[in-house]
Every structure is written in structure tokens, then in C-alpha cells.
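User: I've been trying to design a sequence by hand for this structure and keep getting stuck. Would you show me what you'd pick, starting by listing the structure so we're on the same page?

Assistant: Good idea, let's start from the same input. This is the structure you sent:
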């Protein structure tokens, strides 16, 4: 269901990568629990649920036991992409060659490569892809 995007040189993540995968998968599963298919009018709510759930987990799991707050700033981006289905011939298109939608996303930053980093994840379910990017910046 989920796939990690390759990364050139990854700074030490404040939360182990295996846990990041689980946090993202759980957030998506929670957001899409009762969802049958893509509904554009509901995407804002799904994205809000995914992002809020991930941010809460990241802050909770990266805070040191006696620290007053989280030692990182986090940014989470969630993009929901609808899979294409066949297009009716009445739309002026015969539907041949219709498949999944293409997408490319990239992120770059100027920062301390030893303390700051980024990680991406892809979740697939219910006729949708969700691409999640997490950025952390040490304070």
C-alpha cells in the first residue's frame, strides 16, 4: 500500500523510517476508513486529517522526555491524486490508452544536511494515490 521515495543522502530522521512509514499508513487508513472512492469535495477534509494526524505523531515521538517542546520544526504536505477511469465515448474521446495519471513532485531546500531532512511516501488505495512529504528542521 505504501512506498518510500528514494532519497540521495538522508539526514538522521527524528523518528525511525520504519515508524514514519507506519505513521503515514495509519494516517491514510484513518482518513479513508469509510471512503469507497475519490470524491473531490471531500479531499480537503482527507488532507487535513492526514496532515494533522502525522504532525501530532511526529511531535509526540520526537520530543525528548524532559524537553519543554519538540526539538524540530515539521512541515507535512499531502497530495491526493485520483486514478483515471475510462472516459465515456460521448465525451469525444474513445477511451483508448486511459490509465493512471502521471505525476512528478520534487522538493529542495538549503539547510544543514546533518540535522535537517526530508522524506516522501506514497500510499495507494480506493482509486487514489496519496503522496506525503515530511520535512524536519532541527531547532
Amino acid at each position: 500500500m505504501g512506498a518510500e521515495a528514494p532519497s540521495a543522502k538522508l539526514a538522521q530522521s527524528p523518528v525511525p523510517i520504519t515508524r514514519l512509514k507506519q505513521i503515514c499508513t495509519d494516517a491514510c487508513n484513518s482518513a479513508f476508513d469509510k471512503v469507497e472512492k475519490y470524491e473531490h469535495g471531500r479531499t480537503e477534509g482527507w488532507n487535513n486529517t492526514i496532515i494533522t494526524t502525522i504532525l501530532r505523531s511526529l511531535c509526540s515521538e520526537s520530543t525528548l522526555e524532559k524537553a519543554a517542546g519538540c526539538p524540530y520544526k515539521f512541515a507535512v504536505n499531502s497530495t491526493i491524486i485520483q486514478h483515471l477511469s475510462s472516459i465515456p465515448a460521448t465525451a469525444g474521446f474513445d477511451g483508448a490508452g486511459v490509465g493512471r495519471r502521471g505525476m512528478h513532485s520534487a522538493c529542495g531546500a538549503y539547510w544543514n544536511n546533518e540535522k535537517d531532512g526530508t522524506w516522501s511516501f506514497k500510499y495507494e488505495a480506493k482509486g487514489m494515490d496519496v503522496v506525503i512529504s515530511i520535512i524536519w528542521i532541527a531547532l
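That's my pick for every position. To get oriented when you compare it with your attempt: The longest strand covers residues 72-82. The radius of gyration is 18 Å.
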